Amino acid sequence: QVQLVESGGGLVQAGGSLRLSCAASGRTFSSYAMGWFRQAPGKEREFVAGISWSGTSTHYIDSVKGRFTISRDNAKNTVLLQMNSLKPEDTAVYYCAAGFGIILSSIRSSRQYEYWGQGTPVTVSS
To answer: Are the beta carbons of 2 and 29 closer than 8 angstroms?
Structure first.
């Protein structure tokens, strides 16, 4: 069992930065691939970034490449999403998710993730 709690969301002007944090409980955190997803009002939830259990492999959607960075600290049971050069279209509720045994080719699929946080809202004003 893994419990996830996100923090760090808020209101920021376009061009600004935010750092989202996901704190995980459970001794097997290091065994899980982790992902960040987001859902904007009226839209489907979409994959944003993912990181392998070891932290050696990361994946991003094209729209955030070069602006967002996902990282993890298995000793602290934490996953971070550093978001720079934010745009109004990044406005959404951001969710942290954990999945066991996810192969890298499937890391973008929300169906691969077993545990989800409650979400943290991010609003980027123009």
So the answer is: yes
